[in-house]
Design goal:
This protein has about 270 residues and is α+β, with helices and mostly antiparallel strands. About 30% of the residues lie in helices and about 20% in strands. It is built from 8 helices and 12 strands. Strands 1, 2, 3, 4, 5 and 12 form a 6-stranded mixed beta sheet that branches. Helix 1 packs across helix 2. It is globular. The two termini are about 15 Å apart. Belongs to the thiolase-like superfamily. Thiolase family.
Length: about 270
């Protein structure tokens, strides 16, 4: 069985919800990151055997985000490329599948990536409009909530799931706020020390006033404090402990790793 190695890993800077990446196509952002990873690994697109791209909410992004990313990254159309949706585990699952395919001998070099531009997840109207809506109001559905953050079986928002876990494991509001603050502080410190520079692929973003280079995570908050976090109201349960400050963030970004077999690296 082949041994598998990660030979390169790259990502975009993480954009805040409604931030710098809000108008960017998911496939194109993923493509830029994939190109950066291939360059770092000194691998030509023609040497790639497969491209797997994790993506949760694909509505409105065009057909086959994985294929889009592969082609825009300069990888030949003859190379299989597809998207994978395992919700929050999508990106990790692409790596697992890539490793499995290399170990089985089906591939030697695999691009495993993930992308989500949450700012672009659309609202939809009910499908009954196809048959005509003679009277009454139409309700828009936010796919960010419906397809990205809600358990379809129990109609439970992921924020409520976090509340349930906090209660079950007896994790206090203070513990959550302290952990959130530590996370913010570590991220800010790492940015200031340049710890992420080698892994980030700078992106050229066209804006009204011209082109900017986006290369620094914009979600971390340098002014975060325990007092500020403690002042926030619970977001999902009036008597709960999960807030906008200690919950998982809603962001935009992409990442990619290049997986290769031992025999491919020795060739």
């Amino acid at each position: 069985m082949e041994r598998v190695f990660i030979v390169a890993a790259k990502r975009s800077a993480i954009g805040a919800f409604g931030g710098t990446l809000k108008d960017q196509a998911a496939g194109k952002i993923a493509a830029e990151v994939i190109k950066g990873a291939l360059d770092a690994a000194n691998i030509n697109g023609a040497q790639v055997d497969e491209v797997i791209v994790g993506n949760v909410v694909g509505a409105g992004q065009g057909m086959g985000v994985g294929r889009q990313a592969s082609l825009w990254a300069g990888i030949p159309a003859t190379v299989p490329a597809y998207s994978l949706n395992m919700v929050c585990g999508s990106g990790m699952k692409t790596v697992m599948d890539g490793v499995s395919h290399i170990r089985s001998g089906d591939a030697k070099v695999v691009v495993a990536a993930g992308v989500e531009i949450m700012s672009q997840i659309p609202f939809i109207v009910p499908s009954k409009v196809r048959d005509g809506q003679k009277m009454g109001n139409l309700t828009l559905t936010d796919l960010l909530i419906a397809d990205g953050l809600t358990d379809v079986y129990n109609q439970c928002h992921m924020g409520v799931t976090a509340e349930n876990i906090a209660k079950r494991l007896d994790i206090s509001r203070q513990e959550q706020d302290e952990f959130a603050l530590a996370s913010q502080q570590k991220a800010v410190a790492a940015i200031e020390m340049g710890k992420f520079e080698d892994e980030i692929v700078p992106l050229e973003i066209q804006q009204r006033k011209g082109t900017i280079t986006f290369s620094t995570d914009e979600y971390p908050k340098a002014n975060a404090s325990l007092d500020a976090l403690a002042s926030l109201r619970p977001a999902f349960d009036r008597e709960g402990s999960v807030t906008a400050g200690n919950a998982s963030g809603i962001n935009d970004g992409a990442s990619a790793v290049i997986l290769a077999s031992e025999s491919a690296l020795k060739a």
